Automatic annotation (TrEMBL):
Pfam families: Whib. InterPro entries: 4FE4S_WBL (IPR034768), Whib (IPR003482). Upon Fe-S cluster removal intramolecular disulfide bonds are formed. This is Transcriptional regulator WhiB. Acts as a transcriptional regulator. Probably redox-responsive. The apo- but not holo-form probably binds DNA. Binds 1 [4Fe-4S] cluster per subunit. Following nitrosylation of the [4Fe-4S] cluster binds 1 [4Fe-8(NO)] cluster per subunit. Belongs to the WhiB family. It comes from Streptomyces viridiviolaceus. HAMAP family: WhiB. Its cofactor is [4Fe-4S] cluster.
Amino acid sequence: MPRPPSYAVRLQPVGDLWDWQRFAACRGMDSSVFYSPTGERGRLRREREERARRVCEGCPVREQCARMALETREHYGVWGGLSEADRSRR
């Protein structure tokens, strides 16, 4: 049996990377809870982010979600209870 070249990379099945999302509390929710519309600022932004955080509070995959957002340097939205500003401080 031929051996793979030394530069070959073992790929992990995509399902293994994303399967946790099936258990997310936000699954099926309107994404506008987690992503700000253009020009949203101040009180409206804080209130939307708080609504998103409340969804994340009891989520069984909150840690995986937050970790994924930090590792991939997700720029937008609330992930695992972390807002864009929260993630930029880490």
